[in-house]
Amino acid sequence: MRNKILIVLGILLVFGAAAGIYANSIYQTAMKQKTSGHSAAAETAAANGNVAGISSVNSFYGQEHYYVISGTAEDGTEVYAWVKDESEPEVIVKEKASGISKENAQSIIQQYNPKRITGIQLGMEKNIPLWEVKYIDEHDRYTYDYIDFTTGDIIKHSAIK
């Protein structure tokens, strides 16, 4: 009886280890897709946008895919660069000081009484640099706003029940 229990435990241990390895493989693949293209976008921003120091690269998926890079220009000015994900990438560079901050974007959506903000990131839509603010509103709807980076105007407000 004792040998049967040990065999069953051994088999369960082997299956558990295999499942863990498989789950880790799926996770690694997903994370690689999330950061895929970031190095190339950073190189493009450096070569075509004069972004000398790069502190972060993020992906934005709107109507089109953009990489958003935070860094410094060659003169030390803090900048954001938007690199369109295409074969001949376009680079748009703006000084951080020329637009509203992440904190300003968050305060602008307070008029909708958000219960919980779930994310704020830079993006681009129709060649307009923007902040995308995602939150749960007072009616428990998943909501996102696009706020013009330069003017602070809300250019899109969408709520999904």
Question: Mind explaining what this structure looks like?
Answer:
By secondary structure, this protein is an alpha+beta fold. It folds into 3 domains: 1-35; 38-97, Nuclear Transport Factor 2, Chain: A; 102-160, Nuclear Transport Factor 2, Chain: A. Helix content is 33%, strand content 40%. It contains 3 helices and 8 strands; from the N terminus they run ααββββαββββ. The strands form 2 sheets. A 4-stranded antiparallel beta sheet has the order 1-2-3-4, covered by helices on one side. It has a 4-stranded antiparallel beta sheet with strand order 5-6-7-8, with helices on one face. It is flat, with a radius of gyration of 22 Å. The model has no long low-confidence stretch (mean pLDDT 87). This is Peptidase. Residues 100-156 form the PepSY domain. Residues 41-83 form the Cell wall elongation regulator TseB-like domain. InterPro entries: Cystatin_sf, PepSY, TseB-like_dom. It comes from Metabacillus lacus.
Oligomer: single chain
Overall structural class, as computed from helix and strand content, comes to alpha+beta
Spans of at least 5 consecutive residues whose pLDDT stays below 50 are none
- Note the run of SSEs as H and E: HHEEEEHEEEE
CATH top level of the largest domain is Alpha Beta
Alpha plus pi helix count: 3
Any idea how many domains?
A: 3
User: Strands across the major sheet, in which order?
Assistant: 1-2-3-4
How far apart lie the N and C ends?
Answer: 56 Å
> Overall 3D geometry?
flat
Question: Per CATH, which architecture of the largest domain?
Answer: Roll
